[in-house]
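Page 42, continued from yesterday. The earlier attempt failed because a stray header line got pasted into the input along with the sequence. Redoing it now with the clean sequence only.
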Amino acid sequence: MSSPTADVELITLALEVLQQLRLEGIQLRLSHIGLIRALLQELGLSGEQQTKVFDL
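This time it went through. C-alpha cells are written below.
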C-alpha cells in the first residue's frame, strides 16, 4: 500500500517505538508537503487549521 495515509501510519508507529525506547532529543522533520497535509488531515485538522499551521 502506497499512500500518504500509509506514510503517516508508518511515521507515527516509528515515533511511538522511539518514545517507548525512551530516547531523548528525537526530532521529526517533514519536508514533503503532501505528507504534511496528509498528517494534518489524519489528525483531524480542518482546511482552515491546516492553513494556520503553514502560516507559522
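Notes: The chain is about 65% helix and 0% strand.
Reminder to self: strip header lines before submitting.
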